[in-house]
């Protein structure tokens, strides 16, 4: 009921003619309401689909989505206006497995926003979702209508399912009052969630609510003005990383501590059991990189305002990576060089790394744009063509040992002073092979004096 505080309560849609069919609501006064029926009937998205918004135009208004297949990506979309004034008004993103019998796999929700919904923002249920990542997204609970009558949305994330595994990374969850997220609670289910580097802000109720068979590793998260980061109870298992870290014992690596500002306590519950369960999930439990990646494409992205590198390859490396048509913006209030230019830009290491940088704009940096190579027993080959460097106050190219670079077109900054690494700058276009014949990561080379020497075939002729 309303608290006469300027905010409105949510009304409840009565299904089946009685309060017993409302999902736990009791009491209340019968009123007549109107709502949009389309928001309650979700649009189905089958497997092997990507829904990606262009610019700011990717808004889905008044319709939720049901994902019913593997390999689905939702990116750069905003789902909003799903009957926010009524409970059961509509879920934004709903998953229950394929035909509710087989767990989904490889679901990625990235750079999305959800606001003004009647029920949950994200739901997994029944068969569940075996592998889902929710990243870089905005879950905005600010609303005129709420179950808690305070302008904060209560129904946020509901993670159930016979076999459910979720990673929540780099998200912003704010203006909520509950279920942020609710994890587990049903018998014969297993819900494992890794929650890292997320920001909870201005949450008036509880965030984490654990039920039976819910297992959580929470690390590196920031809680700001969050009344109750963890709902009271004894069910479920959660390890909330602190400075006294137990992760090494179970996972073979350290976990980043959580930070709480003007917030309640966030302590582990059956923490050892949570870590023991999560140990069996390889994507969470291992920090070892042994196999080189292949066929990675970063296209039409923008990176700005980061604390460290914009793009990093390391350890086993990336055998084939293309970075194209992208904007790397180093403008910042804070910089290692104290001049408003970001220093840490690209770091290309790796046992076997091959990178093509094509048609990018790299500006307002002061170093490592890129840094290529520098470690023994590695081999880093980079082809850099038709990029623009602008307003860079320091060095761009910084070469280390076992680095091999072919830049084409104009370079706006010279490399950092070093005798390490190898680069070939063509004076005239005839000195290079056609682009489709350029040597890649498999370029011919031989050892000489402990270092690898690069050989690029040339035709005899004028220089």
Output the CATH class name of the largest domain. Mainly Beta
Radius of gyration: 26 Å
Structural class category: mainly beta
- N- to C-terminal distance: 84 Å
Return the average pLDDT rounded to an integer.
86
CATH fold name of the largest domain: Pectate Lyase C-like
Q: What oligomeric state best describes the polypeptide chains here? A: single chain
How would you characterize the largest beta sheet? 14 strands, parallel
The amount of helix comes to under 10%
Shape: globular
Beta-strand percent range? 35-45%
Low-pLDDT stretches? 283-288, 410-415, 426-463
What is the count of structural domains? 2
Number of helices: 3
Write up this protein.
The protein has 463 residues and is mainly beta. It folds into two domains: 278 residues, Pectate Lyase C-like (3 Solenoid), CATH 2.160.20.10; 159 residues, Single-stranded right-handed beta-helix, Pectin lyase-like (Pectate Lyase C-like). It contains three helices and 42 strands. Strands 3, 5, 6, 8, 10, 12, 13, 15, 17, 19, 20, 22, 24 and 26 form a 14-stranded parallel beta sheet that branches. An eight-stranded parallel beta sheet has the order 4-7-11-14-18-21-23-25, covered by helices on one side. The N and C termini lie far apart (84 Å).
